[in-house]
Amino acid sequence: MLLDRLWPYLKGYVIIKIKGRAQEKCINLACSRGIDLWDIEKIGDRFIVAKIDARDLADMDPILERVGCEAEIIKEAGLPFVLGRLWSRKAFVMGAVIFGIALNVLSSFVWFIEVKGEKEVPEQRILQVVAKEGVIPGKLKRTIDLRRIEKSILAQVREVAWAGAHLSGTKLVIEIAEKKLVPHDNMLTHVVARRDGLIETMITLAGIPVVRPGDTVKRGDVLIKGCAMRRLATGHKDGEDIQIVDGHGIVRARVWYEGTKTVKLRWESLIPTGRRSGGAVALFFGRPIVLGRPPADFRDYKEERERVRFSFGPGGLKIPVEIEKLTWVEVRRTKEEKSYEEAAAEALHGALEALNREIPKGVTTVFKRELVSQDSDKGTVTARIVAEVIEDIGSPRRFSITESDFIVEPQESGADESKEQGKERVDGETL
C-alpha cells in the first residue's frame, strides 16, 4: 500500500549490506528484538541487502558483533536525510525560496502586449491607444480594465469593427477585426429572415439591429442592417473615406414546421393475372410505326415500355432506329379497405417523416402537436403534425447601398462624443 511506503520515507531509512557466515542468524536475532527489516534480498552466498529504520541502525551493532557479521551502509533515504542535506546548503535553499517568491510576484504583472488580426491598421497605432489607457509592460494585471481597452480601441481607431482583449499569463493579447472598404459594386450585407418566426434571442456582432426579442417577422424582413460610414470632415459619400460594416449576427427565433400525410380508407388495386402480350413501336426518322396491339380478351391491362436505340446500314450510311418494346400485362381490379385506426397510424407515420425532412439538423424542438381528421366524403384520413423549433433564421443578403444606409462617424478626436451615440453602435452592440 501507499501508506506502507510513505511512512518509512517520512521517518527515514537506510539500505544496508550484511556480510558474514551467519547472515540468516543475524536477520533472525534482529527480528526477535523488534528491529524491523524489510525488502530483504539475498545476493548469492556473499551478502544480504535489506532496508532498516534509521533509528534502529545503532541497535544492529551488538547483534552484528555477536554473530560475527559486518554491515555496510549502501544508501541513506527518506525525508530526514533530504532535509539534512538541504540544511547543509543554506544558500541554495534561500536562493530557491527567493526565486519562487520573485517568480510569483513577477507573474502578477503584464510584460508583453501582442496584437492579432491587424492587416491594414498598424500595430503601433493599437499599442498607442492601449498606452493611453495606462497599460504598458510592467503593469499590474489586476489593475487592467479589459473592457475599457476594447471600447477605447473601437472609439479611437475607426478602421476597427471589433476588438477583444484577454490576459494569457504575463501577456496581454488584443484581437481586432478590421472594417471593409466599400466594394466597387456599391453593395453591403443585411441579415434578413429566412423564415417567418417570433424572435427569441438576438446577438448583433456587427451592424444595427432592426428588430428585438418578442417581435414577429416574416420571410425577407431585415433583422440586422449593414451600414456605410464616412467621417464628418469629408462631407461626401464617394472616395476612400467611405467604409462599410456588413450586418452580422445570430438571430434565434421560434419557427413552425408542418408535415402532412393523407391515407385512403378504400381504394382499388390492379392485380396481375399472369397473362402478358407484347408489341413494339418503331420510330423511323421521327415517324412512329406501331407493331401489335393488346389482345381483345384483356378486359383490363397496364402497359409497360422499354426504349432501345440502334442504327443499321451499309458502310458509312447509318439509319437511326428507335424501338419501344411494349408489354401489355392483364390485371384484375380488386377493392381494398383498411380500418380508421390503421389509416390514422399510417398517416401519422408519414406526416412525421415529412416533418423530419423539413426540419433542419441541429435545431431545438420546443413541442409537437398531432392532429388527425377524417373526410367521409372522400374516404380519407389526414394526419398533420406541427412542430415549433428554435433556430437561427438570419441569412446574409447583398443589397445596393442607398443614402439611408449612411451614418456619420465622428473623427478620432471626438471619441468621447461617440460614447454618447452608443445607442446606435454598429460594432457588436445592440440598440
Commentary on this structure:
This protein is of the alpha+beta class and 431 residues long. The chain is built from nine helices and 26 strands. The protein has helices spanning 2-11, 23-32, 60-67, 79-87, 90-106, 123-132, 146-156, 340-358, 415-420; strands at 13-19, 37-43, 47-53, 70-77, 109-110, 112-116, 139-140, 160-168, 171-178, 180-181, 187-193, 197-206, 208-209, 216-217, 222-225, 227-231, 243-245, 248-264, 266-284, 287-291, 301-312, 319-337, 364-375, 380-392, 394-400, 406-409. It has a five-stranded antiparallel sheet with strand order 14-12-18-24-23. A four-stranded antiparallel sheet has the order 2-3-1-4. Strands 10-17-16-26 form a four-stranded mixed sheet, with no helix packed on it. It is extended. The two termini are 65 Å apart. Residues 232-240 and 411-431 have low confidence and may be disordered.
Strand order of the largest sheet: 14-12-18-24-23
Low-confidence stretches: 232-240, 411-431
User: Considering DSSP H and I runs of 4 or more, what fraction of the residues is helical?
Assistant: 10-25%
Q: How many beta-strand runs?
A: 26
Rg over C-alpha atoms, rounded to the nearest angstrom: 45 Å
The end-to-end span amounts to: 65 Å
- Strand content is over 45%
Mean pLDDT, to the nearest integer, reads 82
Structural class: alpha+beta
The count of helical stretches stands at 9
Biggest beta sheet attributes: 5 strands, antiparallel
Q: Which overall shape is indicated by the principal axes computed on the Cα atoms? A: extended
